Amino acid sequence: QRHYTLNEKERQLALANTRGGTPLLVFAILLKTCQHLGYFPALDEAPEKVVAHLRAQLREQLPDTPSEPLNVSQPTLYSYHRLIRDHLGIQAFSLEVVEPLLRGRLTQAAQTMNWVTDLINVAIEMLIKENYELPAYSTLERLAANVRTTVHNEIFQAIDNRMTDELRSKVRQLLTPARKRGDTEGPQLGP
């Protein structure tokens, strides 16, 4: 609950930028979830405990109908996003702007990391450090997988370029199932 408790400055920000009621609660939910998670979740995905906690803090400014849907217009929602980003000092994620930075950092990391999840963590760390809002997980997953494939292909190509034809043939034998080779013992690597 401590992550979702409004301080006085946040309460005043919410009151100054809304007309009370549901918009006030929506603003508070967006502020505290973005502050804690690094992105704006859909309002219907906000945990009920968080909504109830924020509703209790703002009870004097809210109607007595807790079942009222958490709806505001799209322009209002985007306006709240902009105000909250300004307040938190974060930038909206834009793949066109951030991709070159992420690609460079992920390319460096993929030299020593094999798992896409590790590369995603590198991307998240970089975005947080650079004060960017976090994008959808799938965006980072696609980018990390693409970078990993590119880096691994470059590594494999560099290894292949250094191999002799004889060694390349032995490696291919290792990768061919024994039944296709016609033997049961497998290839011999040594002399």
Describe this structure in words.
Helices cover 64% and strands 0% of the residues. The model has no long low-confidence stretch (mean pLDDT 89). The termini are far apart. Helix 1 crosses helix 2 and helix 5 packs across helix 6. The radius of gyration is 26 Å and the shape is elongated. The longest helix has 26 residues.
Q: Which descriptors apply to this entry?
A:
191 residues; 0% strand
The fraction of residues in strands falls at under 5%
Largest sheet: none
The shape is elongated
What oligomeric state is this?
single chain
Distance between the termini: 68 Å
Tally the helices: what do you get? 9
Mean pLDDT: 89
Uncertain ranges: none
Helix content: 55-70%
Write the element-wise H/E pattern from the N-terminal end onward.
HHHHHHHHH
Give me the secondary-structure category.
Answer: mainly alpha
- What is the number of E strands? 0
Rounded radius of gyration (Å): 26 Å
Provide a concise account of the structure shown.
By secondary structure, the protein is an all-alpha fold. It has helices at 8-17, 21-37, 48-57, 74-88, 95-110, 116-129, 137-162, 165-175, 178-181. Helix content is 64%, strand content 0%.
Q: Topology of this protein?
A:
Layout: H1 8-17, H2 21-37, H3 48-57, H4 74-88, H5 95-110, H6 116-129, H7 137-162, H8 165-175, H9 178-181
